Amino acid sequence: MTYLFNGFRTLTTAILLISAMSTNAYAMPKGDTSKGEIKTPSCRFCHGSNGIAPQPSYPNLAGQQQQYLYDAMLAYTNDMRIGPMATMMKGQLQNLNTQDLADIAAYYSAMK
Ligand code: HEC
Q1: Domains of the chain, with CATH numbers?
Q2: What is the pTM of this model?
Q3: Ligand 1 centre distance from Cα of residue 31 (Å)
């Protein structure tokens, strides 16, 4: 029984490691820039209407890699990013699905 349990634990650890390594690139739906613009009125307050944050402690989003933005937003929704500001960001994204996130990522990454 102990032997079986240890084997199971090793397998579980291996699976967790493999999934941890693959979390930095999620399959992303095709993003639509103009739809992304419509879905971001509330984001402007902190990330700026031009994607440049007015507060030095908030991140700029303009011109950032599309895949990176998508992965970052998914990470907030999946609790892969933690901390008070990450929890706040999770709340900001709670009503958005993966297509919305892809549209938003396309919108900000297209900004120069
Ligand atoms: C109240 C201010 C605020 C609002 C509103 C807000 N954000 Fe954020 N956002 C932040 C802060 C602060 C961070 C950094 C959080 C951290 O510590 O991980 C962040 C991080 C992010 C990141 C990750 C950036 C990076 O470089 O890793 C993305 C993407 C993002 N926000 C998108 C959005 C979108 C899309 C919306 C609107 C749906 C939004 N945010 C609304 C303050 C805000």
Answers
A1: 27-110 (1.10.760.10)
A2: 0.84
A3: 18
